[in-house]
Design a protein that fits this description.
The protein is an alpha/beta fold. The protein has one domain (2-233): Rossmann fold (3-Layer(aba) Sandwich), CATH 3.40.50. Helix content is 31%, strand content 17%. It has seven helices and ten strands. It has helices spanning 9-26, 41-54, 80-87, 109-122, 158-164, 183-187, 202-210, and strands at residues 2-6, 31-34, 62-65, 67-69, 99-100, 127-130, 152-155, 177-180, 192-196, 228-233. The strands form two sheets. A seven-stranded parallel beta sheet has the order 1-10-9-6-2-3-5, covered by helices on one side. Helix 7 (202-210) links the parallel strand 9 (192-196) and strand 10 (228-233). Helix 1 crosses helix 2 (41-54). It is globular. Bound molecules: fructose -6-phosphate. Fructose -6-phosphate is lined by residues 35-39, 66-67, 131-133, 137-140.
Length: 240
């Protein structure tokens, strides 16, 4: 794993967007795996700025998102599909039909997992962006998710529900289940870019990089990926 430690969040976002833009510029029809959450917001702002200033086009870019809360769809401003449109897609020339995410309101959840998994098999990510949870999750693969897992429905841990409640009116509103890419789907990406900032990520980052490769720390599987770059600010990297 290549590790880059930056002075602050701005520098982290700058470096992460350069890596993402390299992939997009080299392959204008690339498949980009995206994440939600607060970690990628700076990177997304940089992509939007670059699109406006330099005209980088997303016309033929395809995207696959990691996860979506069960029970939420575009009609909820807490859904991840809403997040992606608000924070990225609506500001680029991307074709929304080329942007993919699990349908949180699918009538048949098992069929929805199958549909999304088949899609992932046909769209191998040229790059997959990840954040990390303070419990070591990537996407919504919580501790003890099998390394061989593919798209599935995850029960969110108490720690994830608590972390994510900051974005809801109250903790009771946070969904307790989510659709998520599995660890195998993530490892299938040609390149992985994982970013983390803030002191509350320091332990998870250190366990991911220097700990045992174990299903107890889902992110530790990234030690086995042949092309993975981790960018952290000084706080998140403080235990490395
Ligand atoms: C988001 C996702 C999650 C987040 C992680 C970190 O699509 O899959 O794994 O990347 O929970 O979240 P933030 O960036 O909000 O700290």
């Amino acid at each position: 794993m290549e590790i880059i430690i930056t002075k602050n969040y701005d520098e982290l976002s700058e470096k992460a967007s350069k890596i993402m833009l390299d992939v997009i510029k080299n392959n204008p029809s690339a498949v980009i795996g995206l994440a939600t959450g607060t970690s990628p917001l700076g990177l997304y702002n940089n992509l939007i700025k670059d699109h406006k200033e330099n005209g980088t086009s997303y016309k033929d870019i395809k995207t696959v998102n990691l996860d979506e809360y069960m029970g939420l769809d575009i009609s909820s401003n807490q859904s991840y599909v809403y997040f992606m449109r608000e924070n990225l897609f609506n500001h680029l020339d991307i074709n929304l039909n080329n942007t993919h995410i699990e349908n949180g309101k699918a009538e048949d959840p098992a069929k929805e997992c199958e549909r999304y998994n088949n899609l992932l098999h046909s769209l191998k990510q040229d790059i997959q962006l990840l954040g990390i949870g303070s419990d070591g999750h990537i996407a919504f693969n919580e501790p003890n998710t099998p390394f061989g897992s593919e798209t599935h429905i995850a029960d969110l841990t108490e720690s994830t529900i608590k972390d994510n409640s900051r974005l809801f009116n109250s903790i009771d509103e946070v969904p307790t289940k989510a659709y998520t890419m599995g660890l195998k789907n993530i490892m299938n990406a040609k390149k992985i870019l994982i970013i983390a900032n803030g002191k509350n990520k320091a332990k998870a980052v250190s366990d991911m990089v220097n700990g045992k490769i174990t299903e107890e720390v889902p992110a530790s599987i990234l030690q086995l990926h042949p092309n993975c770059t981790l960018i952290v600010d000084e706080d998140a990297g403080s235990l490395l």
